[in-house]
Amino acid sequence: MIKVFVIASFIFPALALLPAMTVSAQENHEYAKLEEKKIDYRDWTFKNLQDETPVNLRQWAADKPLVLVVYFATWCPNWRYEAPVVAKLYDKYKAQGLNVVAVNEYASGKDARAFFGDKGAPYTVVVESERRDAREKTTHYTYRRLTDDKRNWGSPYNIFLEPAKFLKDGEVLTEKAWVSNGELIEKDAEDFIRVRLGLDKKTTGDTPQSATPGSDKSCGCELPLDTIKKP
C-alpha cells in the first residue's frame, strides 16, 4: 500500500512548496521513548545556519531552563515527520523555558535553509556536517552509537539538557542526559517537558515513558533519497 506523505505546512510554509511525495511501501515512522543514558555530552561550537557566526553550546545554553538538541538530516522522512512536532512543542513551551537548537547533518546548508523557508526556523539551527561521507566523523554518530542507536543515519536524534546541572569546568557538560534514539513520542515528550519546567506537580526523578509499537523498525531515512518519488 502506498500512503501519501503529508507535511504540516502551516508550521513550515516552505514545505508546502514541495511537490506531493509518496514513500515506497508505507510510512516508516521510528518512534523512540526517552531514556536517561550515560553519554558524557561535550561542549561544541558550530556555525549558525543563517549567518555562519559561531554558536557555543555552553554559552548559548547559559540560564536556559531546558534545552532540546535535535540532530537532523533534511532529506530524512523521519525528520520531516518530527519537525512539525518539535516546532509545536517549542511554540507551546518557549515562554515557560523550553529552548531548541537543531544540528544539521549530512546535507548542505543550502538544503537546510530551503527546508525552513524564507522566514527561517523558529529556533536556532547550526551546522555540524554537510556531506554524507562525513557520517562516521561526526559527534552525532559518536553519541548515538554510545546510546545504542543502531540506525545507519540516525535522523532525528534528540537529547534533552538541563544547563543548570552542567558540570562547571571542562569539555564534558553532563555525564547523563535524556535521549530519544528516533522520533519523539509527542505525548511523552510533552509530559517530560512539563515536569522538567515545573508545570506539573510530579516528581522530577524518572519520567515514565510509554513504549510505541514499531519503535525498533528500520526508519524511512535508511531509504536512498531516490526512493522518494513524485506520484
Contiguous runs where pLDDT drops below 50 for at least 5 residues: 1-25, 207-219, 223-231
Output the structural class. alpha+beta
Provide the domain count. Answer: 1
Taking the sheet with the most strands, its summary is:
8 strands, mixed
**Average pLDDT figure:** 83
Ends apart, CA distance between termini:
13 Å
Count of DSSP-assigned helices: 5
Radius of gyration: 17 Å
Shape: globular
Q: Order of helices and strands, N to C?
A: EEEEEHEHEHEHEEHE
Portion in beta strands? 15-25%
**Largest beta sheet: what is the strand line-up?**
3-10-9-6-7-8-4-5
State the CATH superfamily name: Glutaredoxin
Please give the number of β-strands.
Answer: 11
Q: Level of helix content?
A: 10-25%
> In the CATH hierarchy, what is the class?
Alpha Beta
Give the key terms.
single chain; 231 residues; alpha+beta; Glutaredoxin; eight-stranded mixed sheet; three-stranded antiparallel sheet; 5 helices; 11 strands; 23% strand; disordered N terminus; disordered C terminus
